[in-house]
């Protein structure tokens, strides 16, 4: 805890003043002069005044689990959207398969989902919500999914009334080498839906080698050839 003084409170009596002889929670004499107070983390969570840090709620407790990553100087934020083209719709009763490539030993720490627009079989505008879709994410290295089964995307969507966005994992998920994640988004309606699944990662900073540049170039060329350009 940042600046937490509860360890100096006498054991078994939380009502006594801290000015009285201090004892740790284990009953041993506390040493305030040796207490280390960590500096406040300065990032987007700090500046977002809309967040409510309510006690005993999931969000502040999950955010506490990110403390080490938020302080790590050798990690940077990396976001991915699936699909990467917002105009790429998911057809009725179809599933979009997508693979994300990122640096090995990255951490997935949050996500959010939005269903943007839809058209019915008559090509007319239709109402849509995140509940119309199912999502799944699997680490290609271990084969372990993020959820036990496909998850209703409504559970990955914030309506902003909770003032807790994005949705945080209870523990950051480590993505091992080769750093590949398989994402599936399934449309379970008769409508054609435009949506995006946003994934938040913390990626280790590393030197980009010539081999990395060449691989990215070849992947880009293969994508253009696939589009017939």
> Could you name the CATH topology of the largest domain?
Jelly Rolls
The largest β sheet comes out as: 5 strands, antiparallel
Q: Percent helix among the residues?
A: 10-25%
Report low-confidence residues grouped into runs of 5 or more: 1-25
CATH arch. level architecture of the largest domain: Sandwich
CATH class bucket of the largest domain: Mainly Beta
Taken together, the total number of domains comes to 2
Distance between the termini: 55 Å
Q: Any idea what the radius of gyration is? A: 23 Å
**Which structural class is indicated by helix and strand composition?**
alpha+beta
Number of helices: 4
Following the backbone from N to C, one meets helices and strands in this order, namely: HHHEEEEEEEEEH
Notable traits:
229 residues, alpha+beta, Jelly Rolls, 2 domains, five-stranded antiparallel beta sheet, four-stranded antiparallel beta sheet, disordered N terminus
């Amino acid at each position: 805890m940042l600046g937490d003084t509860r360890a100096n409170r006498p054991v078994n009596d939380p009502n006594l003043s801290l000015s009285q002889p201090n004892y740790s929670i284990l009953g041993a004499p506390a040493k305030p002069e040796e207490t280390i107070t960590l500096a406040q983390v300065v990032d987007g969570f700090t500046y977002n005044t809309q967040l409510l840090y309510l006690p005993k709620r999931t969000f502040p407790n999950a955010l506490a689990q990110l403390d080490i990553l938020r302080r790590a100087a050798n990690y940077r934020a990396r976001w991915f959207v699936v699909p990467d083209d917002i105009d790429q719709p998911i057809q009725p009763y179809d599933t979009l398969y997508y693979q994300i490539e990122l640096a090995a030993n990255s951490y997935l720490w949050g996500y959010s989902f939005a269903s943007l627009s839809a058209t019915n079989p008559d090509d007319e505008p239709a109402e849509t919500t995140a509940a119309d879709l199912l999502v799944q994410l699997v680490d290609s290295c271990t084969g372990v999914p993020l959820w036990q089964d496909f998850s209703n995307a409504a559970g990955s969507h914030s309506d902003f009334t909770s003032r807790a966005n994005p949705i945080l994992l209870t523990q950051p998920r480590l993505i091992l080498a080769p750093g590949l994640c398989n994402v599936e988004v399934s449309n379970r309606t008769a409508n054609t839906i435009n949506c995006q699944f946003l994934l938040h990662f913390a990626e280790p900073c590393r030197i980009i080698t010539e081999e990395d540049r060449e691989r990215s170039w070849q992947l880009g060329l293969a994508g253009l050839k696939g589009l017939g350009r």
